[in-house]
Amino acid sequence: MNQESLKRPARIVVIGAGIVGASLAYHLASKGAQVTVVEAGGVASGVTGTSFAWINASCAGQDPIAALRGGAIAAWRQLETQVPGLTVRWHGALSYGTQDGRVSSSSIVLDRSRIARLEPRLRQPPEQALYEPEQGALDAVAATHALLAAAQALGATVRTHTPVLGFTARDAQVTGVETAAGRIGADMVVLAAGTGTAQLAAQLGASLPIHASPAIFLRYQAPPGLVRAIISNHAMEVRQAEDGTMLAAEDYLDDAPENQPAAIALRTASAIRDELEGAEAIAPAFAGIGLRPMPLDGVPVIGYLPQVGGVYVCAMHPGVVLAAIVGQLASGEIVDGQPATALEACRPARFLAC
Protein backbone atom coordinates (compact mmCIF):
# COMPACT_ATOMS: atom_id res chain seq x y z
CA MET A 1 0.00 0.00 0.00
CA ASN A 2 1.49 3.39 -0.92
CA GLN A 3 0.83 6.68 0.81
CA GLU A 4 -1.48 7.99 -1.92
CA SER A 5 -3.89 5.10 -1.36
CA LEU A 6 -3.71 5.31 2.44
CA LYS A 7 -6.89 7.30 2.88
CA ARG A 8 -7.51 6.76 6.58
CA PRO A 9 -4.48 5.50 8.53
CA ALA A 10 -5.48 4.02 11.86
CA ARG A 11 -2.26 4.92 13.68
CA ILE A 12 -0.24 8.10 13.17
CA VAL A 13 2.93 8.97 15.08
CA VAL A 14 3.81 12.68 15.13
CA ILE A 15 7.45 13.28 16.07
CA GLY A 16 7.79 16.67 17.75
CA ALA A 17 5.71 18.45 20.40
CA GLY A 18 6.33 22.01 19.33
CA ILE A 19 3.54 24.18 18.00
CA VAL A 20 3.61 22.56 14.53
CA GLY A 21 3.46 19.02 15.91
CA ALA A 22 0.73 20.04 18.35
CA SER A 23 -1.39 21.53 15.58
CA LEU A 24 -0.91 18.42 13.46
CA ALA A 25 -1.85 16.19 16.40
CA TYR A 26 -5.03 18.14 17.07
CA HIS A 27 -6.13 18.26 13.43
CA LEU A 28 -5.32 14.59 12.81
CA ALA A 29 -7.14 13.49 15.97
CA SER A 30 -10.13 15.64 15.05
CA LYS A 31 -10.37 13.63 11.84
CA GLY A 32 -10.54 10.37 13.75
CA ALA A 33 -6.93 9.25 13.53
CA GLN A 34 -5.28 7.40 16.41
CA VAL A 35 -2.45 9.83 17.19
CA THR A 36 0.67 9.41 19.29
CA VAL A 37 2.96 12.42 19.76
CA VAL A 38 6.58 11.56 20.58
CA GLU A 39 8.94 14.27 21.84
CA ALA A 40 12.61 13.97 22.79
CA GLY A 41 12.35 16.73 25.40
CA GLY A 42 9.43 18.55 26.95
CA VAL A 43 6.44 20.20 25.31
CA ALA A 44 7.53 23.32 23.36
CA SER A 45 11.13 22.76 24.46
CA GLY A 46 12.59 23.69 21.07
CA VAL A 47 12.25 26.87 19.04
CA THR A 48 8.56 27.21 19.97
CA GLY A 49 9.64 28.26 23.46
CA THR A 50 11.77 31.09 22.07
CA SER A 51 9.41 32.42 19.43
CA PHE A 52 8.29 36.05 19.15
CA ALA A 53 5.03 34.50 17.85
CA TRP A 54 3.92 37.35 15.61
CA ILE A 55 1.06 36.06 13.44
CA ASN A 56 1.14 37.88 10.13
CA ALA A 57 0.59 37.16 6.47
CA SER A 58 2.98 39.74 5.03
CA CYS A 59 6.15 38.94 3.13
CA ALA A 60 8.95 41.00 1.64
CA GLY A 61 9.27 40.46 -2.12
CA GLN A 62 7.87 37.57 -4.12
CA ASP A 63 6.29 34.86 -2.01
CA PRO A 64 6.20 31.28 -3.35
CA ILE A 65 3.86 30.31 -0.52
CA ALA A 66 1.50 33.28 -0.80
CA ALA A 67 -1.53 30.96 -0.96
CA LEU A 68 -0.42 29.16 2.19
CA ARG A 69 0.54 32.28 4.11
CA GLY A 70 -2.71 33.95 3.03
CA GLY A 71 -4.73 31.39 4.98
CA ALA A 72 -2.66 31.60 8.16
CA ILE A 73 -4.67 34.21 10.05
CA ALA A 74 -8.06 32.70 9.21
CA ALA A 75 -6.82 29.28 10.34
CA TRP A 76 -5.74 30.67 13.72
CA ARG A 77 -9.08 32.43 14.12
CA GLN A 78 -10.85 29.15 13.42
CA LEU A 79 -8.71 27.29 15.96
CA GLU A 80 -9.57 29.89 18.59
CA THR A 81 -13.22 28.86 18.29
CA GLN A 82 -12.38 25.14 18.55
CA VAL A 83 -9.62 24.75 21.12
CA PRO A 84 -10.28 25.57 24.80
CA GLY A 85 -7.66 27.87 26.28
CA LEU A 86 -6.23 28.96 22.94
CA THR A 87 -6.15 32.74 22.78
CA VAL A 88 -4.62 35.07 20.20
CA ARG A 89 -4.28 38.77 20.89
CA TRP A 90 -5.41 40.43 17.65
CA HIS A 91 -3.97 43.84 18.46
CA GLY A 92 -2.48 44.67 15.06
CA ALA A 93 1.05 45.60 14.05
CA LEU A 94 2.70 48.95 13.40
CA SER A 95 5.78 49.00 11.15
CA TYR A 96 8.03 51.86 10.06
CA GLY A 97 11.65 52.51 9.20
CA THR A 98 12.47 48.85 8.64
CA GLN A 99 12.92 49.10 4.85
CA ASP A 100 12.09 45.44 4.28
CA GLY A 101 9.19 46.05 1.93
CA ARG A 102 6.67 43.95 3.84
CA VAL A 103 3.17 44.87 2.74
CA SER A 104 -0.07 42.94 3.00
CA SER A 105 -3.45 43.51 1.40
CA SER A 106 -4.79 44.95 4.64
CA SER A 107 -2.00 47.49 5.22
CA ILE A 108 -3.20 50.95 6.24
CA VAL A 109 -0.97 54.01 6.08
CA LEU A 110 -1.29 56.06 9.27
CA ASP A 111 -0.15 59.65 9.79
CA ARG A 112 1.62 60.89 12.91
CA SER A 113 -1.51 61.89 14.80
CA ARG A 114 -3.15 58.48 14.30
CA ILE A 115 0.08 56.72 15.25
CA ALA A 116 0.22 58.73 18.47
CA ARG A 117 -3.34 57.73 19.30
CA LEU A 118 -2.59 54.09 18.62
CA GLU A 119 0.69 54.06 20.57
CA PRO A 120 0.63 57.03 22.97
CA ARG A 121 3.89 56.01 24.69
CA LEU A 122 6.02 56.52 21.57
CA ARG A 123 8.38 59.42 22.30
CA GLN A 124 8.74 60.41 18.64
CA PRO A 125 5.97 59.00 16.42
CA PRO A 126 7.07 58.86 12.77
CA GLU A 127 5.41 60.90 10.06
CA GLN A 128 3.96 57.72 8.55
CA ALA A 129 3.70 54.03 9.42
CA LEU A 130 2.03 50.91 8.09
CA TYR A 131 -0.65 49.50 10.35
CA GLU A 132 -1.98 45.99 9.81
CA PRO A 133 -4.98 45.59 12.10
CA GLU A 134 -5.64 41.91 11.35
CA GLN A 135 -2.32 40.76 12.76
CA GLY A 136 -1.72 39.47 16.25
CA ALA A 137 0.44 37.39 18.55
CA LEU A 138 0.09 34.52 20.97
CA ASP A 139 1.87 32.78 23.80
CA ALA A 140 3.37 29.98 21.72
CA VAL A 141 4.06 27.69 24.67
CA ALA A 142 0.55 28.08 26.10
CA ALA A 143 -0.94 27.55 22.63
CA THR A 144 1.08 24.35 22.19
CA HIS A 145 -0.18 22.98 25.51
CA ALA A 146 -3.76 23.93 24.59
CA LEU A 147 -3.54 22.15 21.23
CA LEU A 148 -2.06 19.01 22.78
CA ALA A 149 -4.70 18.99 25.50
CA ALA A 150 -7.40 19.26 22.84
CA ALA A 151 -5.77 16.41 20.90
CA GLN A 152 -5.66 14.28 24.05
CA ALA A 153 -9.34 14.99 24.65
CA LEU A 154 -9.90 13.42 21.23
CA GLY A 155 -7.91 10.33 22.20
CA ALA A 156 -4.34 11.28 21.31
CA THR A 157 -1.38 10.15 23.43
CA VAL A 158 1.57 12.44 24.21
CA ARG A 159 4.92 10.92 25.20
CA THR A 160 7.53 13.49 26.23
CA HIS A 161 11.20 12.77 27.01
CA THR A 162 11.01 9.92 24.53
CA PRO A 163 13.70 10.29 21.85
CA VAL A 164 13.24 8.46 18.56
CA LEU A 165 16.09 6.00 18.04
CA GLY A 166 15.08 4.69 14.63
CA PHE A 167 12.33 3.33 12.44
CA THR A 168 11.00 -0.06 11.42
CA ALA A 169 9.99 -0.70 7.83
CA ARG A 170 8.71 -3.46 5.59
CA ASP A 171 8.71 -3.41 1.78
CA ALA A 172 9.83 0.26 1.69
CA GLN A 173 6.98 1.23 4.02
CA VAL A 174 7.61 2.56 7.51
CA THR A 175 5.75 0.46 10.06
CA GLY A 176 6.81 2.00 13.35
CA VAL A 177 9.06 4.16 15.46
CA GLU A 178 11.72 2.79 17.80
CA THR A 179 12.17 4.57 21.14
CA ALA A 180 14.01 3.76 24.36
CA ALA A 181 10.60 2.90 25.81
CA GLY A 182 9.86 0.44 23.02
CA ARG A 183 8.41 0.33 19.53
CA ILE A 184 5.32 2.29 18.54
CA GLY A 185 3.52 0.84 15.54
CA ALA A 186 2.42 3.29 12.86
CA ASP A 187 0.62 3.42 9.54
CA MET A 188 2.01 6.95 9.05
CA VAL A 189 4.87 8.87 10.68
CA VAL A 190 4.94 12.66 10.57
CA LEU A 191 8.32 14.36 11.05
CA ALA A 192 7.64 17.68 12.80
CA ALA A 193 10.77 17.89 14.94
CA GLY A 194 11.98 21.33 13.92
CA THR A 195 15.74 21.40 13.46
CA GLY A 196 15.83 17.68 14.22
CA THR A 197 13.72 16.84 11.18
CA ALA A 198 16.66 16.53 8.76
CA GLN A 199 18.43 14.02 11.00
CA LEU A 200 15.30 11.90 11.25
CA ALA A 201 14.82 12.02 7.47
CA ALA A 202 18.46 10.99 7.00
CA GLN A 203 17.75 7.78 8.94
CA LEU A 204 15.21 7.03 6.23
CA GLY A 205 17.66 7.73 3.41
CA ALA A 206 16.45 11.23 2.58
CA SER A 207 18.79 14.22 2.58
CA LEU A 208 16.80 17.37 3.35
CA PRO A 209 18.76 20.66 3.40
CA ILE A 210 17.26 22.15 6.56
CA HIS A 211 19.68 24.11 8.71
CA ALA A 212 19.36 25.62 12.17
CA SER A 213 18.98 29.38 11.75
CA PRO A 214 19.61 31.27 15.01
CA ALA A 215 17.57 34.23 16.23
CA ILE A 216 17.61 36.01 19.58
CA PHE A 217 14.52 36.11 21.77
CA LEU A 218 14.28 38.53 24.69
CA ARG A 219 11.83 38.96 27.54
CA TYR A 220 11.64 41.90 29.97
CA GLN A 221 9.79 42.75 33.13
CA ALA A 222 7.96 45.98 32.35
CA PRO A 223 5.04 48.11 33.49
CA PRO A 224 1.81 47.15 31.69
CA GLY A 225 0.47 49.41 28.95
CA LEU A 226 3.71 50.55 27.30
CA VAL A 227 2.82 48.96 23.95
CA ARG A 228 -0.64 48.23 22.59
CA ALA A 229 0.15 46.63 19.22
CA ILE A 230 3.27 44.99 17.85
CA ILE A 231 5.85 47.66 17.00
CA SER A 232 8.51 46.94 14.41
CA ASN A 233 10.91 49.76 13.57
CA HIS A 234 14.61 50.40 13.00
CA ALA A 235 15.35 50.27 16.73
CA MET A 236 13.20 47.45 18.06
CA GLU A 237 10.65 44.70 17.42
CA VAL A 238 8.50 44.48 20.53
CA ARG A 239 5.12 43.49 21.86
CA GLN A 240 3.67 43.31 25.35
CA ALA A 241 1.68 40.58 27.07
CA GLU A 242 -1.29 41.38 29.25
CA ASP A 243 0.75 40.90 32.44
CA GLY A 244 3.21 43.54 31.25
CA THR A 245 5.91 41.16 30.06
CA MET A 246 7.72 42.82 27.14
CA LEU A 247 8.87 40.50 24.36
CA ALA A 248 11.46 41.43 21.77
CA ALA A 249 13.25 39.74 18.89
CA GLU A 250 16.64 40.51 17.37
CA ASP A 251 18.74 39.09 14.56
CA TYR A 252 21.62 36.83 15.51
CA LEU A 253 24.85 38.54 14.44
CA ASP A 254 27.78 36.34 15.47
CA ASP A 255 29.30 34.68 18.52
CA ALA A 256 31.38 37.68 19.58
CA PRO A 257 31.02 38.51 23.31
CA GLU A 258 29.33 41.83 22.54
CA ASN A 259 26.70 40.02 20.46
CA GLN A 260 25.78 37.34 22.98
CA PRO A 261 22.10 37.33 24.04
CA ALA A 262 22.74 38.97 27.43
CA ALA A 263 24.64 41.84 25.83
CA ILE A 264 22.02 42.31 23.13
CA ALA A 265 19.31 42.28 25.81
CA LEU A 266 20.96 45.29 27.45
CA ARG A 267 21.33 47.17 24.14
CA THR A 268 17.75 46.43 23.16
CA ALA A 269 16.53 47.57 26.59
CA SER A 270 18.34 50.88 26.04
CA ALA A 271 16.68 51.23 22.62
CA ILE A 272 13.25 50.51 24.11
CA ARG A 273 13.80 53.14 26.80
CA ASP A 274 14.76 55.66 24.11
CA GLU A 275 11.63 54.85 22.10
CA LEU A 276 8.98 54.58 24.81
CA GLU A 277 7.97 56.88 27.63
CA GLY A 278 7.62 55.04 30.94
CA ALA A 279 10.03 52.26 29.94
CA GLU A 280 12.83 53.37 32.25
CA ALA A 281 12.16 50.54 34.70
CA ILE A 282 12.22 47.64 32.24
CA ALA A 283 14.58 44.85 33.28
CA PRO A 284 15.83 41.84 31.29
CA ALA A 285 14.18 38.60 32.43
CA PHE A 286 15.32 36.18 29.71
CA ALA A 287 17.70 36.26 26.76
CA GLY A 288 18.28 33.21 24.58
CA ILE A 289 18.88 31.86 21.10
CA GLY A 290 16.18 30.00 19.24
CA LEU A 291 17.18 27.69 16.38
CA ARG A 292 14.67 27.91 13.56
CA PRO A 293 14.36 25.08 10.99
CA MET A 294 15.26 26.92 7.79
CA PRO A 295 15.05 25.02 4.47
CA LEU A 296 17.79 25.88 1.98
CA ASP A 297 15.45 27.79 -0.33
CA GLY A 298 13.44 29.36 2.51
CA VAL A 299 10.28 27.49 1.48
CA PRO A 300 8.64 25.08 3.96
CA VAL A 301 9.19 21.35 3.48
CA ILE A 302 5.75 19.75 3.69
CA GLY A 303 4.62 16.48 2.15
CA TYR A 304 5.45 12.82 1.68
CA LEU A 305 9.01 11.54 1.41
CA PRO A 306 9.31 9.98 -2.04
CA GLN A 307 11.86 7.28 -1.09
CA VAL A 308 9.82 5.49 1.56
CA GLY A 309 6.13 5.03 2.15
CA GLY A 310 4.30 6.20 5.22
CA VAL A 311 6.39 9.27 6.06
CA TYR A 312 5.19 12.88 5.89
CA VAL A 313 7.43 15.86 6.64
CA CYS A 314 6.50 19.24 8.18
CA ALA A 315 9.46 21.60 8.64
CA MET A 316 9.19 25.34 8.20
CA HIS A 317 9.88 28.88 9.21
CA PRO A 318 7.82 30.75 10.35
CA GLY A 319 6.42 27.81 12.30
CA VAL A 320 4.08 29.70 14.61
CA VAL A 321 2.53 31.67 11.74
CA LEU A 322 1.92 28.58 9.62
CA ALA A 323 1.16 25.97 12.30
CA ALA A 324 -2.62 26.31 12.15
CA ILE A 325 -3.02 26.31 8.36
CA VAL A 326 -0.44 23.55 7.86
CA GLY A 327 -2.13 21.38 10.48
CA GLN A 328 -5.42 21.88 8.69
CA LEU A 329 -4.11 21.14 5.19
CA ALA A 330 -1.64 18.38 6.04
CA SER A 331 -4.24 16.45 8.05
CA GLY A 332 -6.53 16.62 5.02
CA GLU A 333 -3.81 15.12 2.85
CA ILE A 334 -2.86 12.40 5.33
CA VAL A 335 -6.28 11.30 6.57
CA ASP A 336 -8.62 12.22 3.74
CA GLY A 337 -6.20 11.86 0.82
CA GLN A 338 -7.06 15.36 -0.38
CA PRO A 339 -4.01 17.07 -1.98
CA ALA A 340 -3.72 20.74 -1.00
CA THR A 341 -2.70 22.99 -3.88
CA ALA A 342 -1.41 25.59 -1.39
CA LEU A 343 1.30 23.08 -0.40
CA GLU A 344 2.56 22.30 -3.92
CA ALA A 345 5.62 24.57 -3.66
CA CYS A 346 6.60 22.87 -0.40
CA ARG A 347 7.11 19.26 -1.42
CA PRO A 348 10.24 17.45 -0.18
CA ALA A 349 10.68 15.90 -3.63
CA ARG A 350 12.17 19.18 -4.91
CA PHE A 351 15.35 18.35 -2.99
CA LEU A 352 15.46 14.62 -3.66
CA ALA A 353 16.63 13.37 -7.04
CA CYS A 354 14.65 10.38 -8.25
Give a description of the structure.
With 354 residues, this protein is an alpha+beta fold. It has 2 domains: 3-52 and 140-209 and 296-351, FAD/NAD(P)-binding domain, CATH 3.50.50; 93-133 and 212-293, D-Amino Acid Oxidase, Chain A, domain 2 (2-Layer Sandwich). It is built from 8 helices and 20 strands. The chain has an 8-stranded mixed sheet with strand order 6-7-5-15-16-17-14-18. A 6-stranded mixed sheet has the order 9-2-1-13-20-19, sandwiched between helices. The model is unreliable at 1-6 (pLDDT under 50).
CATH class wording of the largest domain: Alpha Beta
CATH topology of the largest domain: FAD/NAD(P)-binding domain
Measured as a percent range, the helix fraction is 25-40%
> Which quaternary structure do these chains form?
single chain
| Spans of at least 5 consecutive residues with low confidence | 1-6
Mean pLDDT across the residues is 92
Report the sheet with the most strands, covering strand number, pairing sense and barrel closure: 8 strands, mixed
Overall 3D form:
elongated
The CATH architecture designation of the largest domain is 3-Layer(bba) Sandwich
CATH superfamily of the largest domain: FAD/NAD(P)-binding domain
Q: How many beta-strand segments?
A: 20
Structural class: alpha+beta
Order of adjacent strands in the largest pleated sheet: 6-7-5-15-16-17-14-18
Number of helices: 8
Helix-strand string: EHEEHHEEEHEEHEEEEEHEEEEHEEEH
Strand content: 25-35%
From the alpha-carbon coordinates, what is the Rg to the nearest angstrom?
21 Å
Q: State the end-to-end distance.
A: 20 Å
